[in-house]
Fold this protein.
Amino acid sequence: MPQVPQTFFDALAVRTWCGLALRALGRAREEIDAINVYPVADGDTGTNLYLTLESAATAVEAVFAGHGTGCAEPSLADAVRAMAHGALIGARGNSGTILAQLLRGMAQVLAEPGDAAQIDGPGLRLALRRAADSARQAVAHPVEGTVLTVASAAAEAAEGTEGDCGTVARAAYEGARTALAATPGQLTVLERAGVVDAGGRGLVAVLGALVEAFTGETPREAPLRGTAHGRGVADGTDSGGRGRGAADGTDSGGRGRGVADGTDLGRRGAADGTDLGGRGAAAAGSGGDVDGRGQVAAGAGRHADGEAGSVPRARVEGTAGSVSGTAPCEADPCAADAADTGGPAFEVIYLLEADDAAVARLRARLDALGDSLVVVGGDGLWNVHVHVDDAGAAVEAGVEAGRPYRIRITHFGLGDAHAGRGRAPRERVQRAVVAVVPGEGLAGLYAEAGATPVLARPGEPPASGELVQAVRRAHAREVVLLPNDAELRHTAAAAAEQARTEGIRVALIPTRSAVQGIAALAVHEPGRRFDEDVVQMTSAAGATRHAEVVVAEHRSWTTAGICQAGDVLGLIDGDVAVIGADVTATARTVLDRMLQAGGELVTLVVGDEAPETTAAHLEARVRESYLAVDTVVYRGGRQGALLLIGVE
């Protein structure tokens, strides 16, 4: 849906920008991962950028939620500070850490007039310049042809532009886009691979979202290939006119290609080689294997005892001394890992509470230990990122500087290596299902069926980190992930990617409703081969049409006409099909329309706020009017929708 253009940068613009940028990175995540060859070809830049911005967007949403619906919205200063803080504490990887500093630099300017409700075009120009400069200062040894170059180009283009925020944002985007296309000519590793810088590609996506936030228009796609030596230009073709695959999944001849995460049920091919229209799958790539990287540790907790001089350990799981995962594919650029290039073996990241003087000493020590050093933050809280051979020394340096926590150590080129903590861990099960469910009732139903449920309360969708934690709780070698919501497809894809780096084989079935998840779970057989199980579950989900009955919160345009606040809406496969005044009557109309195309089983999931008689009325309707169609009814609890309907 197009955004309403606005001239100034205010708190609402921050919120809109974060949401659009998160979606843009979600769409581009796998493309960015695929072109990630610098500084380490570990294929996770897109995922790291997504997770970093997800943390920023979540923090902004929390600020708005804190003001409630009946109060004035937060100030611009509140919103941008939340954005910067969220990015700082959630920053992942080299590019994610730099993105956090870019957002922090912008926030320093945008929040300066603390009582100002909005900033105009000149203020945005200053913010972009501060962002580029502060990011460059945070990197120990800046390299041209990277995200730093793209950020500087964006700032320079903005400085040469007069106008409102939309005009400035568009100039910054075009400047960044041009600089991105030239990055292969500045870095030999990019030129050799024939790609642009992955971090820069992510920043261009974020700036494109900024343009859309102000103008309501989606800018041109950023290039994946450089323009040097006749390589592909930004529109997806090379200089000789040959069609290249475009970012939207089609080639220049208009042929559709399966999207990487298989998000569109029944329309586009899924990642595992299937669509959800019930067609058979090749299943050759379902779930994917470990990409050759492994996490040695994934610390998420604060320092437990806080005693001076004690070294906080990164959280560890699994079997002592075990190494799992697969070697990088020979055709994959990730095969050129740290071992091949002679670079450091470990990536070390942690949050650090320390004063400025201690951080200055830490920078010098870490710079001597390794490379790719980025230290971002301020006001006593910092995010530290470095590549080293001696991970323990990097953590020790943090202990000497202050209080490090959320320590994450990743070994480039190995599978997931875990150390035991004094007791034998419980054996992993072979396979599990993790599913997002909208209410307590369905959470119980899924749990009884053997799945690990993740509760999504109305208005509170789970973040990718919650999904990763659920995958870990399932404690399985293979996991089938059911997001059960079209809006969660990118979040689930990022979670699946993260879980795979930990040695877990994950298949994402992009279910768009909990009733599709029920259908998939009904045919789940852990004893089957993983690929076969995924195919059967995908087919069952795709053969299930889904609908929901909700109450409109405000007046708006819909595919069925204009609705008023309080109207009852019947949505079929995500689109408003019926506008009514009575819940039961609307539900009956929806059900009739769905059954006109046939069906064998109707699933009704009734929410707490639905009338008591609705389910019984619909059961009677099916029994009297549709012979040989069975009906099953579940209680969903507080699930947001009054009623969920599935027909298979």
Notes: The first strand starts at residue 9 and ends at 10. The radius of gyration is 25 Å. The CA atoms of residues 293 and 412 lie 5 Å apart. DSSP finds 19 helices and 21 strands in the chain.
